[in-house]
Amino acid sequence: MTSIIGTYECKVDTKGRVLVPASLKKQLPAMADGFVLKRSVFETCLELWPMAEWEKMMLKINKLNPFDKKVDTFIRAFMAGVKLVDIDDAGRLLIAKDLLQFGSITKEIVMASKVNIVEIWDKDLYEATLEPDDFDFGALAQEVMSNISFDE
């Protein structure tokens, strides 16, 4: 699994293009294979999936029963707005208008690593998620991580 590290502040131009920071580009595996850009499941942001990671997810999703109504509904929502994208020779990523609208993205964005993918956030929305009033990161970390074995 590829791990991507970092948080990068960028600007989106009027055509929806963003210059991907060089330090982030160096971490993105097999850029020639392209990427998938999609809506996040839980947040008002976008997800940039390296193609290899996307294909791993598709293998898992393809194992779901397409004749189960909940699965059908999930797949439709999960795949809504999915776009194949590339980083052009100038190092820019083009974000489609419907995805810009979904993410409430205007001009200033944050590209934030999320293990093996990159989230793309409107800067104000990203900062708001880091400081919610009803959020105790320590308690969440304990709940999520306390059952993991660190012996490996």
Automatic annotation (TrEMBL):
Please give the GO cellular component terms listed in this UniProt entry.
cytoplasm; nucleoid
GO MF entries: DNA-binding transcription factor activity; transcription cis-regulatory region binding
| Chain ranges of the SpoVT-AbrB domain | 7-53, 82-125
Task: Say which domain of life the source belongs to.
Answer: Bacteria
One GO biological process from the UniProt record? cell division
Pfam families with a match to the protein in the record: MraZ (PF02381)
Q: What is its main location?
A: cytoplasm
**Family annotation (PROSITE patterns):** SPOVT_ABRB
* Family matches, as SUPFAM superfamilies: AbrB/MazE/MraZ-like
Q: Where in the cell is it found?
A: Cytoplasm, Nucleoid
Asked whether the keyword GTP-binding is assigned, the reply is no
- Keywords associated with the record: Cell cycle, Cell division, Cytoplasm, DNA-binding, Repeat, Transcription, Transcription regulation
**What's the subunit arrangement here?**
Forms oligomers.
Give the family from UniProt. Belongs to the MraZ family.
- NCBIfam families attached here? division/cell wall cluster transcriptional repressor MraZ
Q: Which HAMAP family match?
A: MraZ
What is the protein name given in its UniProt record?
A: Transcriptional regulator MraZ
Organism whose genome encodes this protein: Myroides odoratus (Flavobacterium odoratum)
